[in-house]
Known about the structure:
Mean pLDDT: 90
Number of domains: 1
Largest sheet: 7 strands, mixed
Shape: globular
Bound molecules: adenosine-5'-diphosphate, magnesium ion
Strand order of the largest sheet: 4-5-3-6-2-7-8
CATH topology: Rossmann fold
Structural class: alpha/beta
CATH class: Alpha Beta
Low-confidence stretches: 1-14, 276-289
Order of helices and strands: EEHEHHEEHHEHEHEHHHHE
CATH superfamily: P-loop containing nucleotide triphosphate hydrolases
Distance between the termini: 18 Å
Amino acid sequence: MSDTSDLTPNQPDVGLRKLPRVIAVANQKGGVGKTTTSINTAAALAQLGLRVLLIDVDPQANATSGLGIDVRSLESTILDVLIDDAPISDCICSTEIDGLQVAPSNLRLADAEMTMYSMLARETRLKNAVDAVLQDFDYIIIDCPPSLGLLTLNALCAAREVLIPIQCEYFALEGVGQLLENVLRIRRSGLNPTLEVSSIVCVMYDARTNLADEVVGEIRQHFGETVIKTVVPRNIKLSEAPKYGMPIITYDPMSRGAIAYTDVAQEVHNGSQSTAGERAQFTYSWRNG
Ligand code: ADP
Ligand code: MG
């Protein structure tokens, strides 16, 4: 992994984060749990009584379908927002979960990324859309595609924070250095000067292997207090739930996956100003790059 000491968390007294919080869930590797973390953290935050918008900017549209929305039946999606300047409110759909809404994706978003390259202010198209609805939500969670292309760049410009899910497997940190470097680059470029990596979540933990513990230890050593204390276990229910279009808290609320993501959401939310005093561990920021 490349040297990311510049991003080592420090300064434990930066202060709690203000709502609304806009969090991009990113990791340019595919299949590492971005969508599972986006859907289930968003749903658990909504269950805490918060107003949550999940924005799907992955052309695979797994977050959209995973919340029970039929991708083919949609009249308006995030594609119209990014390409045609449609207001994001036009495409927002409600879900079965009270307080959780989705800005759905579209399979044609992959072509849109190419179109966007030639557009004016191409990096900040999502940011402009998000800024217009900020006051309607407590949390806006953005599920990123598995690349560092223009769609992820738009997410990182719209967000204030980045949440990185990391798989408890060999080569878990592979590519994370590149993502962190991109965060620094975006900050330095002035596109998003206060962007910070606020949470790292260890996912797909398999308690039967020593390897999983070693990886979690390595992640904690590297990223310190930025790592969420709750570790998400490998849990078959988490992989079944999207087939039924449900987040884990409704598909199987007593499953280990449901309990873990409820705890993850609580920890994330504990870093908010609205819960000041409850707990202040998750106030670490990243050194200015
Ligand atoms: P990404 O969005 O990074 O590509 P996903 O969230 O889609 O990754 O996860 C990849 C696959 O792994 C999916 O089939 C998902 O259901 C499954 N999965 C994710 N997290 C877990 C977990 N904790 N336990 C079991 N399966 C999981
Ligand atoms: Mg995904």
